[in-house]
Amino acid sequence: MTRAFTPKMVTANDLLEGDVIYLTADNKWSRLLSDAHVFTVETEANAALELAVGQQDRLVGAYLVDASADKDGNPTSLHFREEFRSRGPSNYPHGKQAEV
Question: Is the distance from CB of 12 to CB of 52 less than 8 angstroms?
């Protein structure tokens, strides 16, 4: 039996800085989860992933993440791993964590 498609967003890491980045609705990259586009059509999500994989000069490790959007369209990941990734390294306070 085929599973129903779960909405997705595309994420990767910036090649030069290593920051987590998200694909936006206009096919640009943002470091803000709030800018991520949530794909509700499977073929569109797969096409967006192919676009990302083709940008090896800009990013690494592109993949699809299960996501949802609230009534205002704000995206959120359905997996706790993405929450950790969005905060940066967890071994000691630096970068994003030092700013908090």
Answer: yes
Percent of the chain with pLDDT over 90: 58
76 three-state secondary structure:
strand
Check if the beta carbon of residue 15 is closer than 8 Å to that of residue 57. Answer: yes
SS3 26: coil
Cite the DSSP H helix spans in 6-53.
42-53
* pLDDT, position 85: 77
Query: What is the predicted pLDDT for the residue at 75?
Result: 86
Q: Which residues of the chain have pLDDT under 50?
A: none
Contact status, residue 39 vs residue 47, Cβ threshold 8 Å: no
Long-range Cβ contacts of 15-21 (<8 Å, 24+ apart): 15/56, 15/57, 15/58, 15/59, 15/60, 19/88, 20/85, 20/86, 20/88, 21/59
Q: Which amino acid, residue 50?
A: E
